[in-house]
Design brief:
Blueprint lengths: L2 H14 L2 H12 L5 H21 L5 H18 L11 E7 L3 H16 L2 E5 L6 H11 L3 E5 L6 H14 L6 E5 L2 H4 L3 H4 L4 E3 L2 H31 L1
Length: 233
């Protein structure tokens, strides 16, 4: 599969609004045994970013953007049924995103990949007030708070939320992750506002959460051994 050519062809089909052509093109790709995860990470995500960039710069009409984001979200979500799934609980993720259809699409790509990797995901979408987010953190007992594909207008509220979480101090093992959307356009913003982890793609997000989860499990397993050693000494 030629990635650049595939991205360009899919992009053209998407902005045309011809949903049957989009589905036929994606079917032709899956028929060649391209892994579903590769389509999501190497094709759907770059197309998503292209659509957002062109629309923001006035190089894509509203109708073409709407056609594309909705059709892409459909085929991407359908494709998630073909992901290789890990039958384990890697942790709980509470996720929120920016307010537009495009940002929901970017978040959906991440949600599907996280669930396939064994995470239990609570996806709250956009427009949720900080006090509700704090309540959900307590109720879901999430180990990861992911703020993904956020809009620039979300940044002040996200900064305030992170400050609140750290001031309250009731979630010592919570990892706060920011990425996609405004965080990809303003590199360093995630760290500046206090996130523990940043990621630029869904694949990087899955990798970051999987590696930190594995490290946490290893630390827990090693703790008794350290206590026994100290006692023996």
């Amino acid at each position: 599969m030629n990635i650049e050519s595939t991205i360009e062809q899919l992009f053209q089909h998407l902005i045309s609004g011809d949903r049957r052509r989009v589905q036929a093109f994606v079917a032709s790709l899956t028929a060649t045994n391209v892994p579903a995860e590769r389509l999501a990470n190497d094709v759907y995500w770059p197309v998503h970013e292209m659509l957002v960039k062109l629309f923001k710069h006035g190089q894509l009409s509203r109708v073409s953007y709407n056609y594309a984001t909705r059709a892409l979200r459909q085929v991407a979500h359908q494709g998630a049924t073909g992901y290789t799934r890990v039958e384990r609980t890697a942790g709980r993720v509470l996720m929120f995103c920016g307010p537009t259809e495009g940002e929901e699409l970017g978040a959906q790509l991440a949600v599907d990949l996280l669930e396939a990797a064994g995470f239990e995901v609570f996806f709250g979408g956009a427009g949720v007030a900080n006090d509700e987010v704090l309540q959900e953190l307590a109720e879901t007992r999430a180990t990861n708070l992911v703020l993904w594909a956020s809009a620039a207008s979300d940044a002040p509220a996200i900064r305030a939320l992170i400050d609140q979480i750290k001031e309250i101090g009731g979630h010592p093992n919570l990892r706060i992750v920011c990425g996609g959307g405004v965080f990809n356009r303003a590199l360093g913003l995630a760290e500046e506002i206090g996130a523990d982890v940043s990621a630029t793609t869904p694949a990087a997000l899955v990798s970051a959460l999987t590696s930190t989860t594995a490290a946490a499990v290893a630390g827990t397993a090693q703790a008794p051994a350290r206590r026994r050693s100290a006692k023996a000494a």
